[in-house]
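Work Package 4 report. The design task specified in the project plan requires that, given a folded chain encoded as structure tokens, an amino acid be chosen for each position. We show below one input record used in the internal validation round.
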């Protein structure tokens, strides 16, 4: 394993601590009794406190030092005085352990007394401190100059998402997004629980991928020797519970769809689905707008939210527009009564890419998505979808070509989907068979498997029911002004990390010179590198070993070139 100079130094310090009889990773409890936030909120000069966290900065002033400790709730200033920390003749704890063997990023525990500095800063005078965990890699800490300009910020999205544990340490403001995410879940639970609905759990591994039109992830159960699917939705299981006699059930569901990744889609995502007996989609629209108004208030303290250039207000009520009217408004085309061929030709005339595998539902969906969706900024219910788009939805009571369905659009994106649920088992079978026909035609998002057990459940009778699904990741994006789903997931799905050669600091230094000079003599390279003979030999050999440097002879000169990308 190639280690940087910093990593080698930290490992040497680790060994030095052990030689002093100090365990750098102690197992015993450290009796923390305050957080940085509690200290500041309840500051009392002379009060004894016990804190723990990461050491994030040190200002060495010889026999005394000021430092900053960062815990889960913020930072607090520390004051280390050699003679107060080490009142006897042995000054090892300050001179050696703190000043020489402790690094930024190390976890330490401190006991001390609160006081106010001469400049009015709250501070803890450290009476004792203990190493709790030695860090072996340096944190990429941003630096701020006197004018407030930030340098070396840990801001590259690829690194931030891949190393979220580092992101959370050096960019503590990121925590706020995830704290609001938890507030959102808690608010929604409170709203449902107070209404008398029951939170449940349903299977993640399913023998049939049902409840949505999407490509599943497939795995294999060795003991049963059968294929299983990661759930694409939990809808059909929740409806079984309505059949079983529950009047209202909901679940925060981890779903998995084997589809593309972009700024608003992750293959693993969280949805909330709720089903309430004896209700319809009109009732559900009212409930949804009241729910989201409540959640916005609980998360942000206001119904208003900023998303990019838009100001969005989640205050109920929301506008309601039928899908037919939306398409007619933005395209001039009336989808009512149109055949599959007419829809396909209309889509083509609008410049929308379609193919022969698409049925009526998919064609209408493409037209709406391309020409209408992005125009709905304020929360808007799009209602009354064509039957072909909604295989699990009840036919519209006034128009059998439509269904009693709505989607809630915000800033051009869908965040909620709801139905008056189909509870006619014969009609449901026909809808499943139509989906199978689309799958056989080549639509890879159509469900090509009929869930016979779900049909059997419907045959035992399901009361009139309305169901709602909300994309939790997308909703928190809107409430925290984050245009990328990766910003609201602790650990978003990433491509496999490309493993390049691990280089030492000296090797990296030489490579930077090579990159800046297209062909440089070995003599000039040595001068620019300014390394001792021993370090030069080790670094140049390492670079050549990794195949990153090519040396060619040009007369009496040896010319070095960088071979990396």
């Amino acid at each position: 394993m190639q280690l940087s100079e910093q990593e080698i130094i930290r490992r040497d310090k680790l060994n030095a601590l052990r030689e002093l009889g100090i365990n750098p990773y102690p197992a015993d409890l450290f009796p923390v009794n305050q957080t940085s936030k509690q200290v500041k909120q309840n500051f009392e000069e002379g009060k004894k406190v016990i804190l723990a966290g990461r050491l994030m900065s040190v200002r060495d002033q010889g026999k005394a030092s000021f430092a900053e400790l960062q815990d889960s709730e913020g930072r607090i200033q520390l004051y280390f005085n050699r003679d107060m920390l080490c009142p006897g003749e042995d000054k090892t704890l300050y001179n050696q352990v703190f000043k020489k063997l402790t690094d930024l990023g190390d976890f330490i525990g401190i006991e001390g007394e609160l006081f106010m500095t001469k400049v009015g800063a709250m501070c803890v005078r450290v009476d004792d401190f203990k190493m709790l965990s030695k860090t072996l890699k340096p944190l990429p800490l941003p630096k701020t100059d006197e004018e407030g300009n930030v340098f070396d910020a840990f801001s590259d999205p690829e690194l931030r998402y891949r190393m979220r544990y580092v992101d959370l340490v050096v960019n503590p403001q990121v925590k706020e997004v995830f704290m609001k995410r938890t507030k959102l879940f808690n608010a929604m639970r409170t709203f449902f629980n107070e209404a008398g609905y029951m939170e449940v759990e349903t299977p993640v591994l399913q023998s049939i991928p049902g409840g949505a039109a999407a490509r599943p992830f497939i795995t294999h159960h060795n003991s049963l020797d059968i294929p299983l699917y990661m759930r694409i939705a939990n809808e059909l299981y929740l409806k079984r519970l309505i059949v079983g006699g529950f009047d209202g059930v909901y679940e925060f569901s981890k779903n998995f769809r084997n589809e593309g990744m972009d700024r608003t889609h992750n293959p693993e995502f969280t949805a909330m689905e709720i089903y309430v007996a004896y209700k319809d989609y009109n009732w559900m629209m009212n409930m949804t707008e009241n729910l989201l108004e409540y959640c916005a208030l609980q998360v942000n303290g206001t119904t208003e939210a900023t998303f990019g250039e838009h100001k969005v207000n989640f205050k109920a009520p929301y506008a309601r527009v039928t899908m037919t009217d939306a398409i007619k408004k933005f395209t001039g085309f009336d989808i009512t009564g149109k055949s599959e061929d007419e829809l396909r030709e209309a889509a083509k005339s609008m410049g929308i890419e379609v193919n022969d595998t698409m049925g009526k539902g998919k064609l209408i969906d493409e037209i709406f998505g391309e020409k209408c969706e992005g125009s709905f900024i304020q929360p808007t219910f799009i209602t009354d979808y064509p039957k072909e788009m909604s295989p699990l939805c009840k036919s519209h009571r006034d128009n059998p070509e439509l269904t009693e369905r709505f989607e809630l659009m915000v800033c051009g994106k869908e965040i909620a989907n709801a139905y008056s649920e189909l509870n006619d088992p014969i009609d449901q079978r026909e809808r499943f068979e139509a989906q199978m026909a689309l799958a056989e035609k080549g639509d890879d998002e159509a469900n090509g498997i009929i869930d016979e057990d779900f049909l059997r459940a419907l045959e035992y009778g399901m009361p009139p029911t309305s169901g709602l699904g909300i994309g939790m990741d997308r909703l928190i994006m809107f409430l925290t002004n984050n245009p990328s789903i990766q910003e609201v997931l602790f650990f978003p799905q990433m491509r496999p990390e490309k493993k390049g050669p691990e280089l030492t600091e000296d090797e990296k230094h030489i490579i930077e010179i090579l990159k800046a000079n297209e062909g440089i003599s070995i003599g000039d390279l040595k001068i620019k590198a300014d390394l001792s003979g021993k370090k030069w030999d080790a670094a140049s050999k390492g670079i050549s070993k990794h195949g990153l440097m090519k040396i060619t002879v040009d007369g009496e000169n040896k010319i070095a070139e960088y071979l990396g990308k």
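Residues 134 and 152 are 23 Å apart (CA to CA). Validation will be extended to a larger panel in the next phase.
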